[in-house]
Amino acid sequence: MKLSSMKLDVARIEAGDWVENIPDCGNLRIKTRGINCAEYRKMIDARLFALPSSKRRDPMEVQRVQTECLVAACLIDWNLTDENDAPIPVSGALAILTDPAYDPVRMAVAWAANQIAASNAETQEAAAKN
User: d(Cα 94, Cα 68) in Å, to the nearest integer?
Assistant: First the structure.
């Protein structure tokens, strides 16, 4: 295996990019940084460390912190609309992503951020040439 095939596209991870073809999400597009961007890693470490140790083992509490960090550090934009096709601003994302009824939206944002996190520099260079 070539080392270059394992090199991440750090610039894309930090700057973010649009992700399409999100499973089971129709035409939803999400612009996000990678879940491994420096800001997310810094934020998640600080917020989880600030929790009492008993809450650090609570999956729901950890998910809440992860979601807050995902919105604050990763999510840049999306094309989400309401029932009247009016755009929902990304500034309202935290309320949506922390509502259990909209868990598929939270999972879509996390999936998109993970796709960017796995961006391979070699693959991105090849795609840019095409």
Answer: 7
Return the C-alpha torsion angle 41, 43, 46, 48, nearest 10: -80
Q: Cα separation of 124 and 114, whole Å?
A: 15
Residue 124 has pLDDT above 90, yes or no: no
Q: Which residues pair with 8 in a beta bridge?
A: 120
pTM check: above 0.90? no
Q: What does the H/E/C string look like for the chain?
A: CCHHHHCECHHHHHHCEEECCCCCCCCCCEEECCCCCHHHHHHHHHHHHHCCHHHHCCHHHHHHHHHHHHHHHHEEEECCECCCCCECCHHHHHHHHCCHHHHHHHHHHHHHHHHHHCCEHHHHHHHHHC
